Amino acid sequence: MSESLRAQTGPYFGEFGGRFVPESLIAALDELEATYKAAKSDPAFRAELAELHKNYTGRPSIITEAKRFAEHAGGARILLKREDLNHTGSHKINNVLGQALLAKRMGKKRIIAETGAGQHGVASATAAALFGLECVVYMGQVDTERQALNVARMKLLGAEVVPVTTGSKTLKDAINEALRDWVTNVDTTHYLLGTVAGPHPFPEMVRDFHSVIGNEAREQMLRDFGGLPTAVAACVGGGSNAIGIFHAFLDDENVRLFGFEAAGDGMDTDRHAATLNYGKPGVLHGARSYLLQDEDGQTVESHSISAGLDYPGVGPEHSWLKDLGRAEYFGISDAEAMDALRLMSRTEGIIPAIETAHALAGALKLGPQLGEGSSILINLSGRGDKDMETAAKYFGLLDAK
Amino acid sequence: MSRTANALATPGAKLIGYFPAGYPTLDASVEAAVAMCESGIDVLEFGVPYSDPVMDGLVIQHATEEALRNGFKLKNLFDAVREITSRVQTPVLVMTYWNPVLQFGVAEFARELAASGAAGMITPDLIPDEAAEWLRISDELGLDRVFLSTPTSSDQRAATTTNLSRGFVYAVSTMGITGAREDLDKLARGVVAKIRNADPEQKVAVGIGISTNEQVKEVNEYADGAIVGSVFVTSYQEGGIEALKSKVRELVAGLN
Question: NCBIfam families under this entry (chain B) (predicted)?
Answer without folding.
Answer: trpA (TIGR00262)
